[in-house]
Amino acid sequence: MTARLHDREGELPEAQASRWRGLLMPVPLVALAWTLFQVAIWWFNDIDLNVQYSGHVSFAVAVALLATGEKRDGAAGRWMNRLLAVVALLPTVYLAANAHRITFRVSGLDPVLLGDYVCAIALVVLLFEASRRVLGWGMCVIAGLFIGYQLLGIFLPPPFGHNQAGLGLLVDQQFLTLEGVFGIPTGVSVRVVFYFILFAAVFEAYGGGRMIIELALALTGRSTGGPAKAAIVGSAMMGTVSGSAVANVMAVGIFTIPLMKRAGYPPRFAAAVEAVGSTGGQLMPPVMGAGAFVMADFLRIPYSAVIVAAVLPALFYYLALFLAVDFKARLAALGTLSRAEIPAVRRILAERGHLLLPLVWLTVLIVSGYGIADACLQAIAGTIVIGSLRKTTRQGWFSLVQSLSLGAQRSVSVALPCALAGIIVGVIAFTGLGTKFTGFVVDVSAGSTVAIVVLAMIATLILGCGMPTTSAYIMGAVLLAPALITAGVAPLVAHMFVFYFAILSMITPPVALAAYAAAAIADTPPNATGWEAALLGIPVLIIPLVFFGRPSLLLIGGADQILVSAALTFAAIVALSGMTIGWLFRPLAVRERLLLGILGIGTVIPLHGMTYFSAAALAIVVAWLVLQRNRVGKAAV
C-alpha cells in the first residue's frame, strides 16, 4: 500500500504536485505557451508571416521580462513585469487582427495608423529592455545607434546621409514589413533555431547529454591528457546538438573542467580548453550555430551546402585543439584518468546507446533536404518514443513538459539578438548604408584583397566583443562580406570567413563570453581566462586564412586540390600547436617556437605567387617532424 504512494522515482504525491505547481509559475508557463505557439505555426503553415515572426519576438520578450522580473524584490516589481509581458504580447494580437490590411498594403505609400505606431513603439521599447537585461548594453547600444542613424541621417553630409528619415517611415519599414524586426535573422530564429534548441532540451531530458559526455570520457580517458581530450570530444559532440558556445560550456564544462583540474591541468588552462572546444561546436555539423542558418538564407543556398562547406574546417579546428592539449599533457607529464573515473563503453551503449538513433535520424533528414522544423520535430518525437522504450532513459510527463518549457526559455538568448539584428539589417538596407560602407572599405584598402581580408577579420572580431555570434556574423555579412565579394572572393568563402571569425570572437578578449562562462566553473579570473583561450586558439585562427586562399578546403573544387589544402592545413596546425604550447616531441626553445610559427603561417600564406614558398615551408615542417621523431626514438633506445 505504501508503495502506491510513491512514483517510480520514489516521490510522494505531495512532491509531485509541488513540481507541477512550479510549472504553473509565470516563466515556465509562458515559455510552454511559446513552444505550443511554435508547434502551431509549424502545423498550420498558412498563418501570416508577420504574425508568426511577431509572435516569436513577443514571446521571447515576455519570457525574458518575466525571468528577470521574478527575481526582483517586492511584489509590485514582479507584477509590473507581468504587466509588461502582457503588453509585449499585444502587438502580435494586433497584427493578427489587421493581417489582411497589412498583407495588401503598399509600404511607403499607404498610411501608418495610430495603432501601428503604438504597437511598434511598445514592442521595440520592450525588446530593448528585455535585451538589456539578458544580453547587456552592447547590442542594445549598437541597435539604438542604427535607429538614430535612420531618424537623423538626413542631417549627415554625403556619402553617409540618406533621405529615409521620419518616425512614420521607420515604423512602416521595421514593423509592417518583413525587412526590419521581422526580417531574415528573426525568420531564421522562428523557422530553424527554436526547433533545434527544443530538440536539444528534450534530448537532454532523456539522458542524451549525459550519454555524450560519458562516451567522450570512455573514448579518451585512457590517453595522455584524457580529461582535456574528453572535454574536446564532448564539446564537439554536444555542439552537434546545441549550436551554442555558452550552452555548450555549461553542459559539458561542469563535468570536464573538474576532471582536468584533478588530472593536473592548471585551472585557467582547463577553462580555456573547454571554452575553445565549446566555441567550435558552432562549426560542427549537422547543427551549427544560428549564424549558419542565416548564412544559408543570405546566400539563398540549402543549409546542407553550408554543412558540406564546414566539414573540413570543423575537423581541423578540433584537430588543432586536440594536438594542443596533447602537447600540453606531454610537456607537463600529466597522467590519465583513473580506471574508476572512466565509464565503460559497453555500459553506456547498453543503458543509453539507443539515444544515438534520434541524432542519426536528425542528420539523415537534414542532409536529405527535409525542412529543419520537420526534421527537429521528428527527432523530438523519436527521442520521446525511443527513450521511453528503456527503463534507464524513460521519463515521466513532468520531465517532458519541463523540457518543452526549458527549450523555449533557452531560445530567448537567440531570439532577442536576432530581433535586434533585424533592426540593424533593416536600417542598413533601407538607407543604403551597406553599399556605402562597402565602398568605404574598398577605398581604405586601396583595392588590396589582403588589406580587405585583414580589415574584415579585425572588424568581425571587434563586432563580436559586444554581440552574440549570430549578431556579429549578421553585421559582418551585411557590412564586410560584400567588400570581400567585390574584391573577387566567392560569396560562400566570404560569408564562411566572416562567420568563422564571428565564432572566434567568443574566445577573444576584451569580451570572450565562452571563456567567461568556463572561468565561472573553474573559479579563475575571467579576463586572464579569456587571454589563455585566445592563446590556445592561435592554431585555429589559421584555418579561415587557408580557405580564403584555397577554397578547396570548403570542398570546392577537385579531389587533388582538396587533398593539397588539407595537407597544408594539417602541417600548419601542427607547427602552430607546437609553437603555442612549446612542445613537439620534446620541449622547445624560444627560437624554435618562433621558427615553427613562421613555418606554420608560411605553409598556408594566402598570397598569389607564393606557391613555392608554401611548398618549401611544408617540406621544412615535415622534415622537422621526421627529424625530431627520430631523435626521440634514438634517445628512448
What is the string of helix and strand elements?
Answer: HHHHHHHHHHHHHHHHHHHHHHHHHHHHHH
Strand content: under 5%
| Rg, nearest Å | 26 Å
Sum up the overall morphology in one term.
globular
Secondary-structure-derived class: mainly alpha
- Give the strand tally: 0
Which regions are unreliable across 5 or more consecutive residues at pLDDT < 50? 1-9
Output the number of helix runs.
30
Please state the average pLDDT score: 83
Helix proportion: over 70%
> Sheet bearing the most strands, described?
none
Distance between the termini: 72 Å
Descriptive report:
It is a single chain. The chain has 637 residues and is mainly alpha-helical. Among the domains are: 22-177, no CATH class; 187-418, no CATH class. It is 74% helix and 0% strand. The chain has 30 helices and no strands. It has helices at residues 13-23, 26-43, 49-69, 75-97, 99-104, 114-135, 137-152, 167-175, 184-205, 208-220, 226-242, 245-263, 267-279, 290-299, 303-331, 345-352, 356-367, 372-387, 397-431, 433-444, 449-463, 469-479, 481-486, 491-504, 513-522, 526-536, 538-549, 559-581, 590-603, 611-636. Helix 6 crosses helix 8. The protein is globular. It starts with 12 loop residues before the first helix and ends with a helix. Residues 1-9 have low confidence and may be disordered.
